[in-house]
């Protein structure tokens, strides 16, 4: 019986590099927080478009809580599509807590909602940038404000990845990142996942 060697698994399933990135949590002084807060408050008619001299943090703290319908409506107004609103559902790992809070009798505070929108849009900006920079990029994991990508090493060096990230780190609101070669454990985890998927397909098809 032929058993695959590490090198065989590495060549078939290894994609070269693992890049783990973490975005910053929103802070009141961040420019994107202020912009999104103002857009949300304007949509909720808490502040008018021409009123620039207001304390946004004070307004969000004193504003009424909002319900699930308002949340989804504001989300679609922010992005012009359903990118954010489709995340807010009971079975989505990143949006279920917003769904639960906004769907409750009390609703969700504007502060909590702003935090969610900012984080998700920062993640979207990071993902768009990374997939635009590396056509071989595969999103392997997303946890809270962290993402892990896998990219091919063909024509790409670790130093070039570091250079690219450092150049755009501030505009991407990146808090931390690391770049490493695909490990033996990651190769076997990928192999196991593929094998399990093939097994499921065989059972379904049989």
Q: In percent, how helical is the residue content?
A: 40-55%
**Derived structural class:** alpha+beta
Beta-strand level of the residues, as a percent range? 5-15%
Q: Please, what is the average pLDDT?
A: 86
Largest sheet: 4 strands, antiparallel
Return the domain count.
Answer: 2
Task: Give me the count of strands.
Answer: 4
Question: Which runs of at least 5 residues are low in confidence (pLDDT < 50)?
Answer: none
Order of helices and strands: HEHHHHHEEHEH
User: Please, how many helices?
Assistant: 8
Short note summarizing the structure:
With 206 residues, this protein is α+β, with helices and mostly antiparallel strands. The chain has helices spanning 6-13, 31-43, 56-62, 68-79, 96-102, 110-133, 158-168, 184-205; strands at residues 17-23, 138-143, 146-151, 174-181. A hairpin with a 2-residue loop joins strand 2 (138-143) and strand 3 (146-151).
Any overview of this molecule?
It is a single chain. The protein has 206 residues and is α+β, with helices and mostly antiparallel strands. The protein has two domains: 1-16 and 183-206, no CATH class; 17-181, no CATH class. It contains eight helices and four strands; from the N terminus they run αβαααααββαβα. It has helices at 6-13, 31-43, 56-62, 68-79, 96-102, 110-133, 158-168, 184-205; strands spanning 17-23, 138-143, 146-151, 174-181. Strands 2-3-1-4 form a four-stranded antiparallel beta sheet. α1 (6-13) crosses α8, α2 (31-43) crosses α3 (56-62) and α2 packs across α6. The longest helix is centred in the middle third of the chain and has 24 residues, at 110-133. It starts with 5 loop residues before the first helix and ends with a helix. The relative contact order is 0.19.
């Amino acid at each position: 019986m032929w058993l695959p060697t590490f090198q065989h698994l590495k060549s078939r399933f290894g994609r070269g590099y693992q890049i783990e990135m973490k975005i910053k949590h929103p802070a009141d002084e961040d420019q994107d927080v202020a912009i999104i807060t103002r857009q949300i408050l304007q949509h909720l008619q808490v502040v008018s478009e021409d009123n620039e001299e207001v304390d946004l943090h004070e307004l969000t703290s004193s504003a009424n809580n909002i319900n699930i319908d308002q949340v989804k409506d504001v989300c679609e107004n922010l992005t012009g599509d359903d990118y954010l609103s489709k995340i807010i559902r009971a079975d989505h790992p990143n949006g279920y807590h917003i769904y639960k809070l906004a769907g409750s009798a009390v609703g969700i505070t504007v502060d909590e909602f702003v935090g969610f929108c900012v984080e998700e849009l920062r993640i979207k900006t990071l993902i768009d940038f990374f997939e635009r920079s590396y056509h071989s990029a595969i999103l392997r994991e997303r946890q809270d404000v962290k993402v892990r990508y896998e990219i091919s090493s063909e024509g790409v060096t670790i130093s070039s990845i570091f250079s690219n990230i450092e150049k755009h780190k501030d505009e991407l609101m990146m808090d931390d990142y690391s770049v490493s070669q695909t490990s033996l454990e990651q190769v076997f985890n990928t192999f196991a996942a593929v094998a399990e998927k093939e097994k499921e397909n065989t059972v379904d098809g049989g």
